[in-house]
Amino acid sequence: MRIAKSALVEPGRNEIYGVAAVALSFFVFAYSSRFGQISILAYYGVWLPLVVVDYRRVLGNYLRYGWIFAFALFCFLSAFWSDAPSVSLRAAVQYLTHVVCALIAMRVLTSETLVRGALAGSAVVLLYSLVFGNYLYDALDGTYSFVGAFSSKNQLGLYASLGVLFAYANVLIFRARGIWLLGSLGTGLLSLYSLFASQSATSVITTVAILAACLGMQATLFLAPRQRRLLFFAALVVAAGGAVAALQFGAMDAVLGVFGKDSTLTGRTYLWQQGILAATQSPWFGVGYQGYWVQGFSEAERLWQDFFITSRSGFHFHNTYIETMVETGVIGTLLLTGVLFASLVAHLRRFLIFDRSPQSLVLVAILALLVVRSFVEIDIMHPYHVGSFLLYFAVGKLTLQEPKAVLGSVSPRVSLRRQAMIG
Fold first, then answer.
1. Domain boundaries defined on the chain
2. Among candidates 5, 56, 104, 55, which has minimal Cα distance to 397?
């Protein structure tokens, strides 16, 4: 039986394959540490063979992606000065191929297919955690937390946050009907339960904040782009002022108190201090990509002992900027965070300029979630992680032109000229 190329690589006509591929990818990202190399091969197996099917459509012009690959290539270079060169080189190969898979997904999937695949993947990941999960004792705050099938409640919280976000996107942005509507509602409820079961303050706070921002942005779609931009910047000023006032009156401590946390964020402020000290030892280039948390290295062993990490693995500074500074220095930090913030601003600009852009609204929500979490987690700098996959999917979409259907702008004349250029 022959399978048409369009069923595999043509956006909008490959939904069955795309949903299955994204769902499998999410499961691998969540549990590759449990299932090992076979799961990683399955992840590569759903994306890389598409190059053989139609390499022109699947790859595109990689000369346009230089800025996207910059951080991954710098990770390769860091192996030359790394304290653990073999570790850095291996991790760099994994990260680069992971980025390639994300860019392949970007070219062959619509944002709606991504949302539905992510919705299915989040549901499977959370169901697996609820069935095979367990509670873990936190020696720092003396409490037991439900971590699912992960080793950290924050990872369970991340997938729960994504489940809520993608359920919202599928129902309210893409207007899902029928079985997808029921699936979205079911996954949303499952994600909410998992979110609160995890007791992850990071995940709960960021999910509430991003959903509130999405609802506010979506409510402005009935406005013309010019009015939408004015309202957005006014709301931004009010939100910034409100945040400053709330901090002055101790709102942060009150919120943390609800989750049983204190101002040290369960030892994270001490960990950040240690990371900053480590970054000053090699400020420009770092110690090498993934070259710090290596067994046998004195500082890593000390921090593992301080934070009761008996496995001596899977630990980090709980801050993307500090972690990147330690491993790749100022240069690597600018390359990675530049991609993150540039893509957020660019997709936000598309949302504010075009009459209606569901894709931009969804990608702004994803990137905003990653930005907020970047201050307390490291979702975007490791291979086989859902955060880095979503980042490079969103970044890659900037290399493609926006669909014609959303190209209404402030001036009808400008809109016609844009459509003529694309057509």
1. 6-422
2. 104
